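INTERNAL AUDIT FORM
Audit reference: QA-55
Scope: verify that the stored structure record matches its stored sequence.
Auditor: D.O.
Record contents follow.
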Amino acid sequence: MLKQTLLLLLLSVIAATGTAQQPRTPNSKPKTQNSKSEAHYLQQARRILKNTPIIDTHIDFPWSLVEREEDFKPGYTALALNHPGGDFDYIRAKKGGLYGAFMSIYIPASYQKEPLGTAKAVADSLIDMVHAIAAAYPDKFALAPKSADIERNFKKASFRYRWVWKTGRPSQR
């Protein structure tokens, strides 16, 4: 299983970036590369990606909007489509062959020192953000509350995502 996972990661990198250029020194002649072989592997990678969903299991997109003070401002949901200053957006995800993502609902541990209920309120607002993005762009994003939803909907055009809890304790026990 690990071998297959590593192969899929390698194939997704190949598909996203194409083939790597060989470095040259000033006095070296360009090396002739076996482009037929490279083209074959790239074609094979793309064929596998058509039948295998690539899922990123950790995207901090909601919290990154909070950190950048871009959350809940007019038009903030559009940042999910194209966010040049961020680490995630739909355009780059599709280009890289990413099919789905787990949106992390990150609550910093410092919220444990806040009044009771504050961390939960922040977590709820991040979940609301994820829902708002899916509602604003249903042709591009869709919620997948269960893992089975990702696989079942793989043949549809929408990017699937779920949210997961990460670090911190939003319940503030």
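Auditor finding: record pair retrieved intact. Residues 118-136 form the longest helix (19 residues).
Action required: none
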